[in-house]
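Regression test case RT-17, inverse folding.

Input:
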């Protein structure tokens, strides 16, 4: 990650969802970047890959979605997404071990 950012992003909380059939989101997470905190989700696409979904809101007039928070820098966004996926897999493994 580029050194010109003043803070190191962290995934401070991951909470996998139970398989309830209500959508493709697999986990909620809390992203912390210095004084900024964003609650986001990990979503599984049709190919089975996970991606970071930032908070968004639907425009009821034209049914389009608009992100309410986003990471503009692609390098930082990719790094945060990789951290989120890794944190999800670690938490899922931990829960599986505790359930056994």
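Golden output:
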């Amino acid at each position: 990650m580029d050194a010109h950012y003043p803070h190191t992003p962290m995934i401070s909380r991951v909470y996998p969802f139970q398989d309830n059939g209500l959508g493709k989101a697999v986990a909620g997470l809390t992203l912390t970047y210095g004084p900024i905190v964003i609650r986001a989700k990990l979503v599984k696409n049709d190919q089975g890959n996970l991606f970071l979904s930032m908070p968004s809101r639907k425009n009821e007039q034209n049914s389009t979605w608009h992100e309410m928070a986003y990471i503009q820098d692609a390098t930082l966004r990719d790094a945060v997404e990789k951290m989120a996926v890794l944190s999800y897999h670690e938490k899922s493994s931990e829960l599986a071990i505790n359930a056994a």
